[in-house]
Design a protein that fits this description.
Length: 336
Amino acid sequence: MTAATARAPRKAEEAPGAEDARGARWGVARTVLRLHRAALLVWGPAVLGLTGWLVWLTEVTADEARAKQEACDRAVQDWCDMSVGILGYSAPMDGIATLTANAFVAVAAFAGGALIGRELESGTARLAWSQGITPARWLTAKLAGPALAVTLGVTVLVLVFRWAWKPNRVLIGTDWMDDSVFVALGPAAVAYALCALALGTLTALLLRRALPALAVSVALTWLLAQVLVYFRASLWPSRTRTSATEEVYGPDSAWQVDQGALVHGSPAPRVNHWGCDGTTEEMRRCLDDLGVTGYYATYHPESHFWPLHLVETGILLTVAAAAVAVSFRLLRHRTA
């Protein structure tokens, strides 16, 4: 009884401070939501709209396109316009894949411009810091809400896109190695968005002006995406097929990275062996003059999708974590 009585006052003394801390945290979060509710009101309906469109395409349009294709397969005439039905499904799916994969551009613009840059430029950030909210807590609240909204929204789009794409891929003009489809099929889409949020934040803290930060954030994230697209095929070891007698290709549904001639047993992509024509003997003589001893094809089978995808995702999350760490360090240095 005595121990319980002794502990009670201590709890009573600690409770008000803990409650104040919780109230401060929720106060910052509520302020962030209130300031950026317009962005949330755009983002939420956009995700719901694209999700509903995917469901409609899968449940209604895909069946119509497939029926059109089957009717053409059964038709006796030599020509049948089944492309009309297929394009009604393929073109919207390609568009949704592009929007999902490039959502990071909008996130970068929002982070660099409205989320951080505008508050630093207008001085509202310093006003918040002067009212007992530490800069670190302010930045944490600024990042946490948008990161959660972006993660949930893009995850929903990725899951629904995978559900729609997988059973109807024969009706789609692009395959898994297409730039937009590759990103939209997995967590790399989320990683791109989070990386854009982090880079936009860092850019805004460096420039402290909304419009320049918006422009630089978009340019920086777009450049990072282009670099990763350029080196994507090198993120995981590819496979190679060779032949001593005829040109070779990768298997169906594989991403063919390179193809060419073997010169003295080594790949030589710059050798123009296609210029050898004429009779069989003339072609053989031309190839011998070039030193061609066979042919090769370098490719990624479809089973390489996840290794390639997860390596790219890891790179993006590493960049995002580094940008966030530098942002907190920079903010602490400037407000010390």
